[in-house]
Amino acid sequence: MGRPLESVDPNSDKHPYTAEFFAMKHGLSQSAAEVLLKSNGPSKARCDHAAAAYLQVRQWREGRQKPPAESIKSA
């Protein structure tokens, strides 16, 4: 079967984001934006929710990381 139908109306939820715009909108790297867009299809709402979840997990992981040991800091 072919790709899902995409709208030609740029304001439609089914009109896909460009990777550049999506990365800028959510503060993502280009590669993260491309992966999220590819894995969530043309729906802007789905992509926006996926970006929010990705950023939340990334923030959570960064907060859980321990600072480097003193022996590593002074190296």
What can be said about this structure in brief?
This protein has four helices and no strands. With 75 residues, it is mainly α. The longest helix has 21 residues.
Descriptive account of the structure:
This protein has 75 residues and is mainly alpha-helical. It has a domain at 12-59. The chain is 59% helix and 0% strand. It has helices at 19-26, 30-40, 44-64, 70-73. Helix 1 crosses helix 2 (30-40) and helix 2 crosses helix 3. The longest helix has 21 residues, at 44-64. The relative contact order is 0.13. The mean pLDDT is 82.
Topology record:
Blueprint: H1 19-26, H2 30-40, H3 44-64, H4 70-73
Shape: elongated
Report the major sheet: none
In terms of per-residue confidence, which ranges show pLDDT below 50 for 5 or more consecutive residues? none
How many strand segments? 0
Radius of gyration over C-alpha positions, nearest whole angstrom: 17 Å
Strand content: under 5%
Structural class: mainly alpha
Indicate the percent of residues in helices: 55-70%
* Global mean pLDDT: 82
What is the end-to-end distance?
Answer: 57 Å
Element order: H for helix, E for strand: HHHH
Tell me the number of helical segments per DSSP (H or I, 4 or more residues long).
Answer: 4
Features:
75 residues, mainly alpha, 4 helices
